[in-house]
Amino acid sequence: MKFDSKNSFQNTGSVKTILSRAVVTVLVWTLLLALAVWWNVRVAYQQAFELARTQAHIALAKDLAFRKWASKRGGIYMELGPLVTPSPFLNHVPDRDLQTTRGGQLTLKNPAMIMNEITQEAPQFNGINTRITSRLYINAVDAPDEWERTALFIVEGTRETYHSATLINGKPYLRMMQPMIMEQSCLKCHAWTGIKVGELRGGTDVSIPLAPFYAAAVKQARGIVISHGAIWLLGLASVGFITRRTIRTELERCQQEAQLKEKNLELQDSRQYLLTIIDFLPDATLIIDNLGKVVGWNRELARLTGVPAEKMIGRGDLEYSLPFYGHRRPLLIDLALDPSRDGEGSYEGFTRTGDIVHGECYAPGLSETPAYLTTAASVLRNSKGEVIGAIECIRDKTEQMKTQKRINLLAKIFNESGEAIVITDSENRIMETNRAFAQFTGYSREEALGKNPRVLKSGIEDKKFYENMWRSILETNYWQGEIWDKRKDGSLYPKWLTITAIRGADNVITNYFATFSDITQRKVAEMRIQQLAHTDTLTSLPNRHTLVERLTQSLEQAKRERHSLAVLFIDLDRFKMINDTLGHHVGDLLLKEVASRLKGALRAEDVVARFGGDEFVVVQPRIRSQVEPAHLAEKILKTVAAPYFLDNNTVYTSPSIGISVFPSDGTTVAELFKNADAAMYHAKAAGRNTYQMFTKEMHTAARQRLAIENSLRSAVANDEFVLHYQPQVEPVSGKLVSFEALVRWQSPDNGLVYPDRFIPVAEETGMILEIGRQVFEKACRQAVRWREAGLPLVPIAVNLSARQLRQPDLPEMLSAIMKECGADPEMIELEVTESMTMERPVESTRILGALKAMGIGLSLDDFGTGYSSLSYLKLFPVDKLKIDRSFVKDIEVDPDDAAIASATIAMAHTLGKKVVAEGVETEAQLEFLVQHGCDIIQGYFYSKPLTAEDAEQYLAQRAQKGTV
């Protein structure tokens, strides 16, 4: 018997009902989307108009601010020139034209005129035009047009801003006028109008082109139409899909009903047909008769055991248990068929309910590992209630049990995870949370269920942030990023959030899965790293990296706005001495205090940074003249030079400041730094505790210095240095006691170069070490040559540089040179400056002591020009003190120089040391020094510095006269 279910279904009214509902749904959906498009487009145009109105308010506010600022200050005087001429409309102002003290001509420009001149060029920038007009005017250019006459009438009546949309040259514009009230400060230029203070004297209006705003609105409207069209098509597709699915489901339902009727009819006629149905059951099914023989062994059971049905049908004596256990034993079907087996006590894990027995067990014979089976068995009875057999349905739950274990494990991981986990449904309602969620947010699972995660919203992120986030989720099914959230107690914290959209088979989102963790500690660490990367750890000032960034930004702004800025390079004087004598701890305290004073001396917009060591840099991002950085430099000089009270010490330092100005002194960061640094070195050369502005002369000097440095390196390599020798004579006996070796540079390009030109460069670059070594070696070899020539032994005094004296192995190096040259220690004397020894007095005493122990004579040069401590002076193992030429030059006319020289001689003799006066040129100088007991004289009075050949001849002549 066949049942035509398809025709039966089509004869019903179900199709018409489903299709009619689908049509109604499409119509309603289309209407709703059309309303949404209309509303959104309307809102877009309203927003465009509001933006234009806001732009107009801003433009008028800027104009009003300028006029108020200027009028309160009495007007603006400008220097006459090609672009500035006297205004004929201000002829009535008595002080319209002024003359400066330097003869310059100034003329008065009132704010309104300036604004009109500025705004005449404004329309080229986005078409915005601003005008000042009134009904009382002199200049025809200020006459109101038709719209302005109407606006003036309305503004005069309301005293409020008036605006409207209008057409200008056929294009839409928003025009806005604000009232212009007569103020006291306006009377100077506008008293002729007769308008009193507080009365309306005109209006300022601005024209804003609406085309760009409407264009943006059109673009937005186009996007709205496209997006809503896509949504409409998606809706149509969904309705079609659902309609088709509904019709198919209805068809399947009718077909199943028809098949069930057919099977019921067939099962009533045939037992074999029943077995056929059982054969296709999803459970493994075993049927035995009341004698225990197999009458049913379906396909699933054959698959599970690997034994086909034809081999088992008709078998008895528990053979059907062999595939499960490997030996004969009763199955649950046997317990159902024979209830008496319950009492044998050898079976567990089953329950009996009437004729039905349920159980579960492990079957070791089905696979390498025991299979986990769930089974149900029942007796079969005929219409009389007699037992005719039994049936057992077996399910292999091994994979399901593994899956359940995995689910349990995942559930434990879910709940015990260190990250908070949230699962929501398609409407973003919370379905599940874990323990970490409660720890982070303060909301328990029960409190969170059913809520929208927006309860955690902090309010820090804006609407745009969330729009981008959801766009990513909907387009890519994924979003990850940093976001701020709010706990239940209201406290805010940063978290790292990951959201994943879960889609079903039809690509429709069914759930959202989110994980997050509290990153407060990480943010703190990042902030600390950021601070360390941009801040000097000692002074908390910006470091060099941050300084370069800020100066670069200020330069770009200065270039755009065409204003000047200044860079001040500050170096602390004598900081190294403070560090060495009082310790690095006091040096650090001094740097902190200097940083604090610098910050207090600056304006809010100025930048101060620690450049490195004891160097600081100040940037003035906007200056009106080059006088401003000079004023700031003077303020810094006074502030930084004040005494410091640090760790029970009173400390004094002073700044040397170099200033460079953009754009005159450089247009890049590197140029400004370099030129400010050069100016700072000139400040140090000028006596320190002062400032110097960078000049072209400095640039030239710097280039010359660089040229000297390059040539000097070649000179060191090519041995271009020669020694000249100036005699030192005992004035009483007239005997020659020694020569001072003075280095000269015999340059192939510049001839003989004196040390004052190249020694400072050699000191700065470190080449002085090699030059000093060469000078000492030349002096030793010269002394040996004179000795070999049979001339009397006259020591040669060699000057040591500060860098040489700081060499710990200096005594060993000089000893090696003398040994190589064959010179004896008594042939050589060494001269060190007073300031050099006081830089590191303890180390200087050690090195000088070692040199003295070698038998080398020592002299303290330039005595009186430094800051010697007598307690250290008496410890220095020097033989002679040299009075600096600056005290000798005016010794016969300057009482101070005379007093210093006489006191130095007396003190040296008291300490058992001889005195050498250098720079002696006149008879009067010589008489004064001899009268006060000076031991040795050096200067042009006796001889100028001599070449090696001339010095040898001079020595030979002295030897013949017996004055050696």
Descriptive keywords:
964 residues, alpha+beta, nine-stranded mixed sheet, six-stranded antiparallel sheet, 33 helices
Structure description:
It contains 33 helices and 34 strands. The strands form seven sheets. Strands 26, 27, 28, 29, 30, 31, 32, 33 and 34 form a nine-stranded mixed sheet that branches. Strand 5 and strand 6 form a beta hairpin. The termini are far apart. 28% of the residues are buried.
Total beta-strand segments: 34
The count of helical stretches stands at 33
- Give unreliable regions as ranges: 5-11
Radius of gyration: 52 Å
% residues in beta strands: 15-25%
Largest sheet: 9 strands, mixed
| Fraction of residues in helix | 40-55%
Shape: flat
Note the topology.
Elements lengths: L4 H6 L3 H59 L3 E4 L17 E3 L5 E5 L1 H10 L8 E5 L12 H13 L3 E7 L2 E11 L5 H4 L9 E10 L1 H59 L1 H9 L4 E6 L4 E4 L1 H7 L3 H4 L9 H4 L6 H6 L12 E4 L2 E8 L7 E11 L5 E10 L1 H19 L3 E6 L4 E4 L1 H7 L3 H4 L14 H14 L1 E9 L5 E12 L5 E10 L1 H15 L9 H18 L2 E9 L2 H8 L1 H18 L5 E6 L2 E9 L3 H15 L2 E3 L2 E3 L3 E8 L6 H17 L5 E3 L2 H23 L2 E9 L6 E12 L3 E3 L1 H11 L2 H21 L7 E4 L2 H4 L4 H12 L6 E6 H6 L1 H13 L3 E7 L6 H4 L6 E4 L1 H4 L6 H16 L3 E5 L4 H9 L4 E3 L9 H14 L3
Parallel strand pairs: 24-25, 27-29, 29-30, 30-31, 31-32, 32-33, 33-34
Antiparallel strand pairs: 1-3, 2-3, 4-7, 5-6, 6-7, 8-9, 8-13, 10-11, 11-12, 12-13, 14-15, 14-18, 16-17, 17-18, 19-21, 19-24, 20-21, 22-23, 26-27, 27-28
